[in-house]
Amino acid sequence: xxxxxxxxxxxxxxxxxxxxxxxxxxxxxxxxxxxxxxxxxxxxxxxxxxxxxxxxxxxxxxxxxxxxxxxxxxxxxxxxxxxxxxxxxxxxxxxxxxxxxxxxxxxxxxxxxxxxxxxxxxxxxxxxxxxxxxxxxxxxxxxxxxxxxxxxxxxxxxxxxxxxxxxxxxxxxxxxxxxxxxxxxxxxxxxxxxxxxxxxxxxxxxxxxxxxxxxxxxxxxxxxxxxxxxxxxxxxxxxxxxxxxxxxxxxxxxxxxxxxxxxxxxxxxxxxxxxxxxxxxxxxxxxxxxxxxxxxxxxxxxxxxxxxxxxxxxxxxxxxxxxxxxxxxxxxxxxxxxxxxxxxxxxxxxxxxxxxxxxxxxxxxxxxxxxxxxxxxxxxxxxxxxxxxxxxxxxxxxxxxxxxxxxxxxxxxxxxxxxxxxxxxxxxxxxxxxxxxxxxxxxxxxxxxxxxxxxxxxxxxxxxxxxxxxxxxxxxxxxxxxxxxxxxxxxxxxxxxxxxxxxxxxxxxxxxxxxxxxxxxxxxxxxxxxxxxxxxxxxxxxxxxxxxxxxxxxxxxxxxxxxxxxxxxxxxxxxxxxxxxxxxxxxxxxxxxxxxxxxxxxxxxxxxxxxxxxxxxxxxxxxxxxxxxxxxxxxxxxxxxxxxxxxxxxxxxxxxxxxxxxxxxxxxxxxxxxxxxxxxxxxxxxxxxxxxxxxxxxxxxxxxxxxxxxxxxxxxxxxxxxxxxxxxxxxxxxxxxxxxxxxxxxxxxxxxxxxxxxxxxxxxxxxxxxxxxxxxxxxxxxxxxxxxxxxxxxxxxxxxxxxxxxxxxxxxxxxxxxxxxxxxxxxxxxxxxxxxxxxxxxxxxxxxxxxxxxxxxxxxxxxx
Length: 864
Ligand code: SF4
What we know:
Elements: E1 2-5, E2 14-20, E3 23-28, H1 41-44, E4 60-61, E5 64-65, H2 68-86, E6 91-95, H3 101-115, E7 120-122, H4 129-139, H5 149-153, E8 156-160, H6 164-167, H7 169-182, E9 185-189, E10 202-204, H8 211-224, H9 230-236, E11 237-238, H10 243-248, H11 253-260, H12 264-275, E12 280-284, H13 286-289, H14 294-307, E13 317-320, H15 327-333, H16 348-358, H17 371-379, E14 385-389, H18 393-396, H19 400-409, E15 412-417, E16 430-433, E17 442-445, E18 450-454, H20 467-477, H21 489-501, H22 520-524, E19 529-530, E20 548-549, E21 567-572, E22 598-601, H23 603-608, E23 616-621, E24 624-632, E25 640-644, E26 677-684, E27 688-694, E28 705-711, E29 714-721, H24 726-732, E30 737-743, E31 748-755, E32 758-766, H25 774-781, H26 789-794, E33 807-809, E34 814-815, H27 816-826, H28 831-838, H29 848-863
Parallel strand pairs: 6-7, 6-14, 8-9, 8-12, 9-10, 11-20, 12-13, 14-15, 15-16, 21-25, 22-24
Antiparallel strand pairs: 1-2, 2-3, 4-5, 4-16, 17-18, 18-19, 21-26, 22-25, 23-24, 23-26, 27-29, 27-32, 28-29, 30-31, 31-32, 33-34
Bound molecules: iron/sulfur cluster (SF4).
Iron/sulfur cluster (SF4) is lined by residues 6, 8-9, 11-13, 35, 39-40, 42-43, 168-170.
């Protein structure tokens, strides 16, 4: 049994892994403080994602396999040559919250201490850099002043801009457990009614981008209600002279309710609950951070906690929760272009200090380019050599088509990745095979400052190498062998720990110097530990005067989009997918939850556009257009759309959310706004639609719409197009015995291909008829016995089988219709009763909010 950590979100769950060959059984680690044995659906099914399918196994230059020596020499030579000709700022690294801390540390050291530029930024810029800026403005250092234990002791938890039930499911289950045990109140502040709202006492569906108005109104209310902590303010907090005068303008209840577009009574209820509940945790995530005013939004939340003294105490804190597994480790080493290292900025004394520590010949003296500016510099030719590590910016950056243009014109692009073919590796001149999750060895830091070991489960695949080793070897080849002669990940951890303590003297809370002498054996056996204790418990902050800062923030004007774009596009994650699906997309189980990229739209908005549930529609913004399946949702505010971030060119002709947002950023953090892009929706009217099931990977198909997912035993491709579909029929299907039926009258066609008595593929197309259920046909891909020709062409068994409906519980394969049948037939009224009857929701718990929603909808229907 090997103890390690989950590959995905910032909750940082501990895992126990039982390895057999290249297979692994995953269970939650009951001894890990982050999850105490629980895992969500993504963590539970990690074992489905560790095969070598799609892996990059050898170094390549220009698409041809080369030796590691040749690849390292090429990267080092081209970077050195570019620096010699154009200076250190002509090169850049774009790295990732998927890297381990040791990987991050060495990349940061090479760029900022030896190349002499700070042009290293990370995809964490897109995730939580506004929280970093907000923390530094308020506290003087990027310190998260909460832990998960605070969720157990709070009396009120406020979730702001966070679909916790889907994006941090184990935290959500912990919140629900606290509610059950102690009656903790829960308020959700989010424009959308997500599954996170299912258990909330109150949901405020505020206007997108009005969070500053809402929090300023809360602070004004706390002041008038007399719940400011005047003693704490006097001793531990400083504020500009005009702070309170400025706050009072426009922060009355009625003005705030109008600005936020929420009912005044609901707003007052929240304000009164907050004022009356000293033990309050305000947990926030991407809805706050991914905004062009993200830093102000963070400070609006922090201001309220500082002014009411709700910080540094059990159950009372603002709590930024990160999206990625090691975003926090990146923050600790300085992996953002705006930070230097070990929580130090670019003040001259810090540059000198870090230069001494590293014995660095070429210290960067100023911040580098942040992600959006970095790719703009690639596009306009200022950056001529770029190394991308463990991330997919051709999909994930805003206005991603411009990023693709930049990559296409960049003279030298290196990509280190464990996946061979991503939307980004297609632009690489050099591809370097990196270790995958199950092969990595190092540390990660989760959202509550807990540092855990990630341990290798398998030998390195093919010629893959750890990222820290690849970077070290390039640094050695560039002439800095002495400074990069690491032989074990522990060497890097020890150096990182020493730097955190170097000339610190208590000036920086991030100090893990007590681990600097850890042995290799001690590192291998290291238990999770948290740095920083209970930050600010003594009321002292890492600022020159030891006080925290109230930062004046004003609500920006929320102007409607231009006439061509009357709607507002919001973006986010699905419950069972992760980022660009390079791993979760390998799992048939995880692909069951939502099989296509959906655009969620309010039914009245859709009706006004002549669009029905299940139609296809283009989401169009000033940056581009992409096609989605329409999902009508009462949980959407009128005038707003929601799309998922996961789909790429590898899986779909549509669903390309990354290309839609503007490349506009927060002025302090440089974090792009992904949550409120002016958009419009246009119905697509394909002449035919259909689907393909295949045992082997289907060939690329490019009709108007084609999107593919893994299913048990093969693949499912949803299709729609216009004109003749003969090309699709010819291209899509494999060799074998063909069974075929043509519906001349209605222009439909059904073709099944059988080989050795087993179904290899089947295609169902219709112009105005119905299509058979996918699930029975998918089951035939893996079936031992062959269904009859008539059954295959009909797309259903001769003896009808019950339709379980879309899968809700992926752990136990329980569908929506099965749950509804049990709820109505057996009179079930609670999630636990459904669990007892069907097992649904009794493993990872990720589907419990969905089950609760089904029970509620059923009860509403019964009373109607
Ligand atoms: S909540 Fe889920 S995705 Fe996040 S770390 Fe835990 S198991 Fe992994």
